[in-house]
Amino acid sequence: MKPDKKTKLKAPQLPEDFIPIQFDEKINAEKHYFNGVIQETSVVDQTFEHLEFEKMVFKKSVFQNVSFRDLQLTDVVFDSCDLSNVDFSGAIVHRTELHNCKLLGANLSEATFRNVLFDQCLAKYSSFAFANFKQVYFQDCSLQNADFYEIKHKQLDFSKCNLNETNFSGTELNKLDLRSCTFDHITVSLDKLNGCIVSSEQAVGFAKTLGLVVTEEE
């Protein structure tokens, strides 16, 4: 399924041929990696600094409890990767796609996202607090208990996502369309709710969140 046309995402610009790259604790010997594929690799409990990945594919790899400080991603695809508890805080992410990835507890706070697709990702308890989004699409993702506190966004779309218990407090929700998403409860700021697009059923849920008593008409 392609992203909605209104999102107009720019896809990663990838080469026809890739160079296999071995990713391990010695990767800090280089800072800029490009035209490569990192496949079926496992890295746990490591910290890397000032890395830049360009025109890269990460496939079926595991990066658990890994910190990438001052990370830059340009024209990158993550395919079926486990990024649980990864620290991408403050990262710059441009023309990047994540397909069928685990982002449980991932820290993506204060990151900058431009033309990014999250497709069928499991991102429960992830944090996007204070992040800046432009042309970003979440598709068929589980975002339960995720944190979108005080984010800035333009052309941010959610399609068929689980947003139950997600935190949007401090975030302007004007023009944000949540009609295809599911949730029993989300946290929002009343003064920033104006213009949010929801279904009639979701509107009832919002009313209950705001303390209103909703009853059937007699």
TrEMBL record:
Gene3D superfamilies the record matches: E3 ubiquitin-protein ligase SopA (2.160.20.80)
SUPFAM superfamilies named in the record: Pentapeptide repeat-like
InterPro entries per the UniProt record, alphabetical: 5peptide_repeat (IPR001646), PA_immunity-related (IPR052949)
Stated name of the protein: Pentapeptide repeat-containing protein
Species the sequence originates in: Bacillus changyiensis
Organism lineage: Bacteria, Bacillati, Bacillota, Bacilli, Bacillales
